[in-house]
Amino acid sequence: MDECVFSDIENTTQEVTSNMHNPIETSPVVRHSTREIKKPCRLQELLKHMSVVRLGAKKNPNNLSWKLYDEQLRLRKSLDPASSWAIVDPELWLLYMADSSGTQNLGVVSSGYNAFSANRNLNRSYEVKLFKAAFSLAYHGVLRIGELAVSNGKSAHIISISDVSWSSFGVLNIRVPSSKTDQLGKPAKIWITGSSLVKNVFIESRQRPDGTNLCLDRLNTEIWWQGKSGMVTSQLRRHIRIMLKYEDPLNLVIHVGANDLGNIKTKDLRENLIQAMTFISKDLPDTKIVWSQMLPRLKWRYSNDSKAMEICRYRVNNAVANYILESGGYYIRYPDISRTENMYKSDGVHLSVIGNNIFINTIQGGIEFFMLKTKCHVFPSTDK
């Protein structure tokens, strides 16, 4: 640090001390400082610092808070000599100048440089631990910066102390106040529509602990089940247009087509389903369509040839699924539902309790999978 600068500040302090009862009078101090400064390049900075110190003396004429500010600023300057004297240190200003009494601040710096140095190291250690914890939490919790820090204290997205708790097993639980996918707080709407199978699954879901929403509330998601007994492909578009009178969905899960197998030629059914998907995409341009695979059956309404019906089902499923995937949609398969008696009721068409629960689990897993992994479009994944 320049000796001429330091000695000048010492002289300035003495001048200000002797003129505390008349802090507005500046000319003697300015004249004295100007004569003593050997390096004119620092003159403007020192004049600014003198002005700040005198302002502090004016604000607190009955104590020496301005002197404490000046001393602590010099200690900081000794650590960084290249810094400007003209810049007001906001931390020191709030600590000393903003306190009208000044008495509580005297003990803070009574030990001079050593006290400042120890306090500085303590703050640095605390800040290191603080930022380590913040970065670790943000990384593992996939948090935005706006969920950890806020400038005005009015953000609805920031995590507060009440959102953090420890479980009895020593697990840290953190509740995110707002949705990760919708910062406006509106839940994502998902429709599941189709034949009586969807209707029966909805009834079964009401008996489960996670309810009809399939425990997807944690993803800020609401499910609307709309199953209609005996629904065929020709009724699908009209059914969805009626639902559109109430809301627009984020995702639309469609489970239909099995009631048409055997009644319509495979080629025609395939074309009808693809045409229906095309019209629905135009009606819902912002909605992702999820094709729910047609399930096998023990008995078919329009044919007794189960083998031939399975071939038709396979071809139609593949054609519609490929079209949906090429259009950016999703595809849910049910590999765990097979043509066995324990999966179906006595009619060989509708699912049993076991079959319904497997269907629910798969639908739940598929929706969650698609919402969290947007690049994956098939569930269960076909990748080995």
Automatic annotation (TrEMBL):
Q: Which InterPro entries match?
A: SGNH_hydro_sf
What is the designated name of this protein? SGNH hydrolase-type esterase domain-containing protein
Annotated Gene3D superfamilies:
SGNH hydrolase (3.40.50.1110)
Query: Which species is this UniProt entry from?
Result: Mytilus coruscus
- CDD domains xref list: SGNH_hydrolase
Question: Which superkingdom is the protein from?
Answer: Eukaryota
